[in-house]
Amino acid sequence: AQAVAAELERCQPHMRKLQHNDVTVVVYGECAGTIQGRIDMPLAKRPRFADATAWQRYAERLNAFGAQLLARYGIRLAYHHHMGAYVQAPADIDQLMALTDPASVFLLFDTGHAWFGGAADPVALLRKHAARVVHVHCKDVRPQIIDQARNGGWSFLDSVINGAFTVPGDGAIDNRAILRVLKDVGYQGWLVVEAEQDPAVAPSYAYARKGHDTLRALVDQSSVCHGPGQRER
Hints:
The chain is an alpha/beta fold. Helices cover 47% and strands 13% of the residues. The protein has one domain: Alpha-Beta Barrel (TIM Barrel), CATH 3.20.20.
């Protein structure tokens, strides 16, 4: 409880700024002990919770943190599953959603990290947890590069540099099906075009525009309820 209170105290200036700007969702990404920033560390060495007790303690802290954010600032906590982190694989996402309070902890669904994390069908994974999704990162994947990353024991950064991710419209993910699931649950949050790539190989503006235009066309075709579009990286 003390750790949660201390963390919330450290976050207060930022949360007040978000509240002032009418923000209703804040992205939470686990950084402590994770390896996504270490180019020397293969993804196979990512951190894992030791046992069910460790999972439960983590979930309880997230519940408390999310509940206090919502009560104080009216901001929902969107948990970002991520390569190289504790919550990476589909089973990790399932466990997190099962152990956390649906009224306090929500989900940022990242299509690219879902695929890379092991979801043979990201659409099916999204469907399982769509009611908890309050923010979406729309990236795409190059499966052949991801296969090389897995077989070669690459780090997350090596995977990024070598082109594991790309933008919607340039990869293998069925973005139309993703949007259909979101529409079915009445999703009205952000669709963020995102792809960590080497800009020397994949020029940022051209790829951002391609991702935006791809999603824009799919949204218009399906009449998905949505917020303003955004391009990122």
